[in-house]
Amino acid sequence: MAEVVLKNLVKTYTEGETVVHGINLTIQDGEFMVFVGPSGCAKSTTLRMIAGLEDITGGEVLIDGKVVNRLAPKDRGIAMVFQNYALYPHMTVFENMAFGLTLAKMDKVSIAARVREAAEKLEITNLLDRRPKDMSGGQRQRVAVGRAIVRKPAVFLFDEPLSNLDAKLRVSMRLRITQLHKELKQEGQNATMIYVTHDQVEAMTMGDRICVLNAGRIMQVDTPLNLYNKPANKFVAGFIGSPAMNLLEATLTEQDNRIGVILHNKWLALPEERANIVRQHVGKKVWLGLRPESIGNKNSMTCTPENTLRGVVKAVEQMGNEEFVYFAIGKEQYTARIQVEAAESLEFGSECDFGFDLQKAHIFDFETEQNIGLES
Ligand SMILES: Nc1ncnc2c1ncn2[C@@H]1O[C@H](COP(=O)(O)OP(=O)(O)OP(=O)(O)O)[C@@H](O)[C@H]1O
């Protein structure tokens, strides 16, 4: 049970390169917080500073109200699960899971009870006598999670724990970890979990809140749905969502008292409520963000001369229930996501009219890249 607070956290490696630039973040007691961002954005470095595996250059880490900058990892009340499992190869599963408790000089009966309880939770009771080399990757990772659980830590830290597993196992393990978080809560162990991943599907499905990082800075901290529906800036808009949001250069213009954007030399009207929010920015260059599901054909949305552009189909990916249509207008490439009932049989090189649902448009300042289309 612990709140984790990062105050102006800075990391400079000895080579002099600052990779974490003053991060401020409060992770609430019992919260499942995901750190997500592209490779090299300092997710792991930040997590390792919380764990005590990396020196802190500046700022503070507080766990349960106490500054832990100088505490050894074992004294921080944390348990960490790594991508490579980090199991002892010469020990059985039981011994691996018991190891930390033995070091902490817990009595043997209590250790056995804790290990069995955790093994049952993770359905690995039948593996307790095996050694890591005789198990699959998924089983090893369950043991690594089990080793963390037995210690009943206040804070669980996960560093890309599912990256070495195949796609199907990743899905089942991610469910298991989120269920574990809920089960522990039910049992009164309000475990705070901090989970690092570069996989936005993991981030969206697991996190109570997600902290999106880029180049050592926080871009946005919010619930999965708010990140998707109200991205604070162009970076978050482009990072969260698959296929990625279409981001188009446009200029906000006024014609006959109505506000719209000029795209490919055509004026497209913004619906009135959207127009009112960005009225003060008329004349400015902006990034117009449209999710693939906000672009469609005449069967999937209302297409009018004021929201339609003609494009050339470059590729179609069939997903079963829907298809992703990649098309070009001039040099720009766009993605539309169309439900299979509405799909036309579009072939490479064919021309089609695509409707742009500007009611759902996200609008970002061209220079600052901040979202200027949010209702205040
Ligand atoms: N020991 C080190 N010495 C110097 N630079 C380092 C060290 N470890 C990491 N870095 C640098 O710090 C930056 C952040 O690395 P970090 O591993 O935290 O990123 P990440 O977001 O976890 O990336 P990935 O998703 O690829 O694991 C990178 O530029 C990396 O090269």
Automatic annotation (TrEMBL):
Pfam families: ABC_tran, OB_MalK, TOBE. Residues 4-240 form the ABC transporter domain. SMART domains: AAA. Keywords: ATP-binding, Cell inner membrane, Cell membrane, Membrane, Nucleotide-binding, Sugar transport, Transport. GO terms for molecular function: ABC-type maltose transporter activity; ATP binding; ATP hydrolysis activity. Coiled coil: none annotated. GO terms for cellular component: ATP-binding cassette (ABC) transporter complex, substrate-binding subunit-containing; maltose transport complex. It comes from the Bacteria. The keyword Nucleotide-binding applies. This is Multiple sugar transport system ATP-binding protein. It comes from Thorsellia anophelis DSM 18579.
